[in-house]
Sequence to fold (339 residues):
Amino acid sequence: MNITINGETKHMRAVWFEDNSVKMIDQKKLPDRVEIYTATNTHEVAHAIREMIVRGAPAIGVTAAYGLALAKLKNEDIEEAVEELSNTRPTAFDLFKAISYMKKNGFSKKAADRYSNEITGRSKKIGEYGDDLIRDHSRILTHCNAGALAVVDWGTALSPIRVAHRKGKNIVVFVDETRPRLQGSTLTAWELLQEGIEHYIIADNASGYFMRNGDIDLVIVGADRIVSNGDFANKIGTYEKAVLAKENGIPFYVAAPGSTFDFSLENGDKIPIEERSQEEVLEFRGVRAAPIGSKSRNPAFDVTPARYVTGYITEYGIFQSGNLKSLKKLIDKDLFMRM
Fold:
């Protein structure tokens, strides 16, 4: 992704390996400032994933891959490293795909680099296929952050938007805040601003208003895990956007690489849903916003049934829930996905 710092624009990835350490853009510091978090051992990598210094399913996978390469270089106990990283974010399937990949490839730095480059290349292909869905003057709603920060580069839901913009299409993006951590208003808006894409930040509960008024032509979201029947888990609040889109006759697309598909689960009821701390809801930037004594529930994700999905934008093309078996065959034949 292109980032402008002190008037200078340069290309950066969200996560990379340098000087025997894993480096990443600290997403908790955005949009106020761009800071680099450096992890020098597995514990620090796990901390970055768990505390959402890095987030987004594909980026979590890449970070874990580099974390295991780092563990090998530092002569850490590999089994303990695998266990610690596996317990960081249970919903994101890319995490487990990356760990499996590294196990099969000897936990080498070369393998981690290849994994990162593959994911990045595939996210660009998602953009190229998804661009066909975006017309000139399209108004697109997205939820959470499924951009370069969540993938390493390009993004999933934002990848078609980047491609369309770079082709000269006039588009406007409506960005849900995405409470309680505001990944939309802090991260997605920041990425769109860096790219020069026109956008509006809206309250999470305003999307129905804009859909009903005819202000939204298309919804594109990312995913943390997609299962056999097409049900998928994504950031909390996605389900209601899908229901509203169907009610208002608006196409609803899910953008995700093959590494996000978990064909071992038959439906979304089987997806483990992470529940995070109450403080994320009860506080705002460390300041208590709710009455003392009140409690909260804070699921990080929800599951959207396949019946609300118009299609899945992948690096293999665009598929509907009824032909995901065809997608599975392509993934099964893909050497990278089998490694």
